[in-house]
UniProtKB/TrEMBL annotation, chain A:
Primary residence: membrane
GO CC, one annotated term: plasma membrane
Family assignment from sequence similarity: Belongs to the binding-protein-dependent transport system permease family. FecCD subfamily.
Protein name: Iron ABC transporter system permease
Organism: Enterococcus saccharolyticus subsp. saccharolyticus ATCC 43076
A single GO BP: siderophore-iron import into cell
Positions of transmembrane segments: 45-62, 74-96, 102-121, 133-157, 177-197, 218-235, 241-257, 264-285, 291-310
InterPro entries (alphabetical): ABC_BtuC-like (IPR037294), ABC_transptr_permease_BtuC (IPR000522)
UniProtKB/TrEMBL annotation, chain B:
InterPro entries: ABC_BtuC-like (IPR037294), ABC_transptr_permease_BtuC (IPR000522)
The protein's name in its UniProt record: Iron ABC transporter system permease
Gene Ontology CC annotations of this record: plasma membrane
Species this chain originates from: Enterococcus saccharolyticus subsp. saccharolyticus ATCC 43076
Recorded topology in the membrane: Multi-pass membrane protein
Biological processes per GO annotation: siderophore-iron import into cell
Transmembrane regions: 7-25, 45-64, 76-97, 103-125, 132-157, 177-199, 211-233, 239-260, 267-286, 292-313
Keyword Disulfide bond annotated: no
C-alpha cells in the first residue's frame, strides 16, 4: 500500500514541477490552447521534469548498489572519485576535440568513470578494515587528486570557469533536443533491476557469494560499468549533484530495511522525489532567478548527511 | 632491515637543499645583486615556512588518523579559504581586494579557519573513544558545502574578476607579502615546537590506541592538541600562499620510504628538508626553465596525483 502513496506523491510533485517557473503555464491556458504555453510545456517543462525524475532515481539507486556491494554505507559516485574521474575525461575531450559531439563527451566520461571505479576498488582492498568512514574519506582524497590533475589542465588552457559552470548541477539548460541522452538511464535501470537478485547475494561478501556458485568478479565488473554509465550520463546532462547518492539510500533503509531487491524501486522513487523538491525550491526561492540545484541539494543533503552520521554514532 | 644511515641521508639532503637555495638566489641575477636577493630571499623564506607547516602537519595528521592516504586537506579548510576569498572578491571587488591587503585581513583569515576547526573538534570528536572519523566526515561534508557555494558565486562572476581571483586561489609564491610572513612565521614556529614536544607520544600512537592508553598517554588530549596545531599550520600556510593540497602528501610519502623509521622527530626533519627541496627546486624550474608557463602549485598537484596512484599500486603489491 505504502508504495502506492509514494508513487502518487511522485506524480503530484511532477505535476507541480511542470507548472513552476518564470513564465506562467496554467491549466486554464492549456485548455484554451494558448500556443506559447503549450510550446513552453513541451519544449522545456516536460523535458526538465523527466530529467529530474530520471537523474534523481539514477543517482540514488547507483549509490544504493555501491553501498551494498562495497558493504559500506557511506560510498557513492561522489565519494569514491568516480565523478572526478568523469570530469577529467570531459575536460580532455574539451581540450582535444573542442567541437566533439555530446556522445563523444559522454563516452569518454563513461570510460574515465569506469577506470576510476576500478582503481578505487583496488584501493579499497588495501585499506584497513576498521571504521566504515575510512573508505569514503580515502575515496574523497582519491577524487581530490584526480580533480587536481584536471584543474592542472584546466588552468593551463584557461578552461576553469568554463568547466565549473558547465558541470554545476543545473536543470535550467534542459530543453528539447539537448537532453535526450538522459534516456540512457532507462535501459540501465532495467538491467540493474534484472540483476537485483544476484546483487543481493553479492552483497553478502565475495567469499559467501562465490561459495553459492556466483561469478563475483564478473558481476562486479558488469554492475560497476552500469553504475559508471548511469552516473556519467547524469553528470553530462545536468552536472554534479552532491550527497544525493549517500543520503537517499540511507534514509530509505531507515524506513524499509536493507534488502536490496525489495527496496530498489523505493530507492529510485525517493531519489526522484528528493530531486524534484530541491529543484522546485531552487526555482522558487529567488524567483525570477534560479539557484543551481546543486547548491540546494548540497545544503539540504549536507544537513541530512550530518544528521544520519550523528544518529548512527549515537545508535 | 639494514642499518639505516639516517644522519647520512639527512646530511645529503641538507647539502642538496643548500645547493638548490644558493642556485635559486644567484642564478641569472645580471649583476643586480641587492635587488635580486631581496626579492628572492623573501620567496625562499616563504618556501621554508610553507614546507615546514605542510610536512609537519601532514605527518602528525596521518599518525593520529592512522591512515597514510589522508592529508589535513580533508578537514575542508581549503574549501573554506576558497569560499571566503570568493565571497570577498564578489562583494568587495577584485581590484579593491588586491590593492588593500592589510595584516588584519590575514590574521582574520587564519583566525576564522582555526576557530571553525576548533568548533568542529570540540563538537565531533568522540569524547569517550577518541574516534576521529566522524570529525573528518563532518569536515569533508562541510568542505563540499563550501565548495558548492563557491562554485555558484564563481559562475556568476565577471570573467575579469574571476581571473584576479584565480591568481589568489592558485598557490603562488611570487608575491608573498613580507608583513604577513612575520606573523605567519610566528604562528608556524610555535605550532611546530608544540608538535616537536609531543613527538615521542606520537611515536607511541603507532602501536595502537589501546597500547598507548595503557602506557599512560592521554590520547584524547594528545589528539585535540595535535588537531589544533594542524589546523593552525594548514590555515596559515593556505592563507599565506593559497591552497597547496598535495605538497604534504608527496613529501611525507617519500619520507616514509626514504627514512624507514617510525620516529616523528626524524620524519619531521627529513620531510621538512624534502619540502624545501621540492618547492625551491620546483619554483626554480617553473621560473627559469618553463618561463612562467605554469604555476608551481599545479606542478605539485600533478606530481601529487602520480604519487598517490603509485602508492596505491605499490601497497597493492605488498598485500
Amino acid at each position: 500500500m505504502r508504495k502506492v502513496w509514494l508513487f502518487l506523491s511522485l506524480l503530484l510533485l511532477a505535476i507541480v514541477s511542470l507548472f513552476v517557473g518564470v513564465h506562467q503555464v496554467s491549466l486554464y491556458g492549456l485548455m484554451n490552447g494558448d500556443e506559447t504555453q503549450w510550446m513552453l510545456l513541451l519544449k522545456t517543462r516536460i523535458p526538465r521534469t523527466i530529467s529530474l525524475i530520471l537523474a534523481g532515481g539514477m543517482l540514488s539507486v547507483c549509490g544504493k548498489i555501491m553501498q551494498h556491494l562495497m558493504q559500506n554505507r557511506f560510498v557513492s559516485a561522489g565519494t569514491i572519485g568516480m565523478m572526478d574521474s568523469a570530469r577529467l575525461g570531459i575536460l580532455l575531450v574539451m581540450l582535444l576535440f573542442p567541437n566533439g559531439s555530446i556522445l563523444l563527451r559522454a563516452g569518454v566520461a563513461f570510460i574515465f568513470a569506469y577506470i576510476g571505479v576500478l582503481l578505487f576498488l583496488n584501493l579499497s582492498r588495501i585499506l584497513p578494515k576498521g571504521d566504515p568512514m575510512i573508505l569514503p574519506l580515502t575515496g574523497v582524497m582519491f577524487g581530490n587528486i584526480i580533480g587536481a590533475v584536471a584543474s592542472f589542465f584546466a588552468y593551463q588552457f584557461q578552461l576553469v570557469q568554463n568547466l565549473s559552470s558547465w558541470l554545476q548541477g543545473n536543470f535550467a539548460t534542459v530543453m528539447e533536443g539537448s537532453y535526450e541522452l538522459i534516456y540512457i538511464t532507462v535501459p540501465v535501470f532495467i538491467i540493474l533491476y534484472l540483476l537485483a537478485y544476484q546483487m543481493t547475494i553479492a552483497g553478502l561478501g565475495e567469499e559467501l557469494a562465490t561459495n553459492l556458485g556466483m561469478n563475483y568478479q564478473l558481476l562486479q565488473f558488469i554492475v560497476f560499468a552500469l553504475v559508471a554509465l548511469g552516473s556519467s550520463a547524469v553528470l553530462i546532462m545536468v552536472g554534479n549533484i552532491p550527497f544525493l547518492g549517500v543520503v537517499i539510500p540511507n534514509l530509505v533503509s531507515l524506513f524499509y530495511g536493507d534488502h536490496l531487491k525489495n527496496t530498489m524501486s523505493v530507492t529510485v522513487i525517493f531519489g526522484s522525489i528528493f530531486l524534484l523538491i530541491c529543484d522546485i525550491l531552487s526555482r522558487v526561492l529567488i524567483a525570477p532567478y534560479e539557484i543551481p540545484v546543486s547548491v540546494v541539494v548540497g545544503m539540504i543533503g549536507g544537513a541530512l548527511f550530518l544528521f544520519l552520521l550523528i544518529r548512527r554514532r549515537k545508535g | 632491515m639494514k642499518k639505516n644511515h639516517f644522519a647520512l641521508k639527512i646530511g645529503a639532503l641538507f647539502a642538496l637543499c643548500l645547493v638548490v637555495v644558493v642556485v635559486f638566489l644567484t642564478y641569472n641575477t645580471y649583476g643586480n645583486w641587492d635587488f635580486a636577493l631581496k626579492l628572492r630571499g623573501k620567496k625562499i623564506l616563504a618556501f621554508i615556512f610553507v614546507a615546514l607547516a605542510t610536512s609537519v602537519s601532514t605527518i602528525a595528521f596521518q599518525t593520529i588518523t592512522r591512515n597514510q592516504f589522508l592529508t589535513p586537506g580533508i578537514l575542508g579548510l581549503d574549501n573554506l579559504y576558497i569560499m571566503i576569498q570568493t565571497l570577498l572578491f564578489f562583494f568587495v571587488g577584485g581590484i579593491k581586494m588586491l590593492s588593500q591587503e592589510s595584516i588584519w585581513m590575514f590574521i582574520a583569515n587564519v583566525g576564522l579557519m582555526t576557530i571553525l576547526s576548533v568548533l568542529f573538534i570540540s563538537f565531533f570528536m568522540d569524547k569517550v573513544t577518541g574516534n576521529l572519523f566522524l570529525l573528518l566526515m563532518v569536515g569533508m561534508i562541510s568542505g563540499t558545502l563550501f565548495s558548492s557555494i563557491s562554485t555558484f558565486i564563481q559562475v556568476l562572476m565577471d570573467p575579469n574578476e574571476y581571473d584576479l581571483l584565480q591568481g589568489r586561489l592558485f598557490a603562488s609564491f611570487s608575491n608573498v607579502n613580507s608583513n604577513y610572513l612575520m606573523v605567519a612565521a610566528a604562528i608556524i614556529i610555535v605550532s611546530v615546537v608544540v608538535l616537536w614536544f609531543v613527538a615521542p607520544e606520537l611515536d607511541i600512537m603507532h602501536i595502537g590506541r589501546d597500547h598507548a592508553v595503557n602506557l599512560g598517554i592521554s590520547v584524547n588530549r594528545l589528539q585535540t592538541l595535535c588537531l589544533f596545531c594542524i589546523s593552525l599550520l594548514t590555515g596559515t600556510a593556505t592563507a599565506l600562499v593559497g591552497p597547496t593540497v598535495f605538497l604534504g602528501f608527496i613529501v611525507v610519502t617519500i619520507s616514509y620510504r626514504l627514512f624507514a623509521t617510525y620516529q616523528h622527530k626524524k620524519l619531521f626533519i627529513g620531510s621538512f628538508l624534502l619540502g624545501i627541496l621540492l618547492l625551491v627546486g620546483g619554483q626554480f624550474l617553473v621560473e627559469q626553465i618553463f618561463q612562467w608557463s605554469t604555476t608551481i602549485s599545479t606542478v605539485i598537484q600533478f606530481v601529487g596525483g602520480i604519487f598517490f596512484l603509485g602508492k596505491i599500486l605499490s601497497e597493492r603489491k605488498k598485500v
